[in-house]
Amino acid sequence: MNDSERLIVLNSTKLGDNSLVLHCLCRRLGRRSFIVGIRKGGSRAMYLPFSVLDAEMLENRKSDLWRLKGVSAVYPLNGIRSSFDKNAICLFMSEVLWRAVQDGAAEEGLYDWCEHSILTLDAMTGDYANYHLRFLMELAGVLGFSPSFEDLAPFAGEHLRQISDLLAADLPSFLVYPLNGDTRSAIADALLRYLSAHLEIPLNIRSLAVLGELYR
Q1: Which domains does the chain have, with CATH numbers?
Q2: How much helix, strand and coil, in percent to the nearest 5, is found in the chain?
Q3: Model-level pTM?
Q4: Going residue by residue through the chain (216 aa), what tens digit of pLDDT does each one get?
Q5: Other Cβ atoms closer than 10 A to 182
């Protein structure tokens, strides 16, 4: 089977000197991993987390790990790649999806929502420090369990009021809601524990500590 696919890179693993295993979210196939060749001395920038790619898939009848060829970037994502802060948020969001969505899973609407989230972050010019919190709340809804105040209360601890306010806020109000770095990290941790409980998967997101230091 040779077929074209739109995909979002969630993570990558080096395979020898000239290949990567890309862990991707695909528009039609859901979560899937592929092998892609890298020319000697070639750039790997196109395969950074949350890159949106078009590629041809080459089926491997002996393995579930198919190969990609003719890979091209759909969007330059200059707004993300030129910003340290946005790259940190991007790494966090891609790690959450990589750990939350299992291989073979194909949630309806997940790909399109994720691509829209990437382009929204890319286009923002300010007030995006809370964006990853909005991402977590929306992800829960896309996965089928939109959080309510009652749902989140057991995980909120001392930040129940802020979480309640954020749940009720539209996107512009959400993004400018005043939070310090420690509170923002605590709310992100509460949302991750909520997602973990519903998915029955431990979401130990290492990049959350990077965001905590960034916005301290």
Answers
A1: 2-73 (2.40.50.140), 78-214 (no CATH)
A2: 45, 20, 30
A3: 0.93
A4: 567 899 999 999 988 778 999 999 999 889 999 999 987 766 788 999 999 999 999 887 777 889 999 999 999 999 999 999 999 999 999 999 999 998 888 888 999 999 999 999 999 998 999 999 999 999 999 999 888 899 999 999 999 999 999 999 999 999 999 999 999 999 999 999 999 999 999 999 999 988 878 776
A5: 11
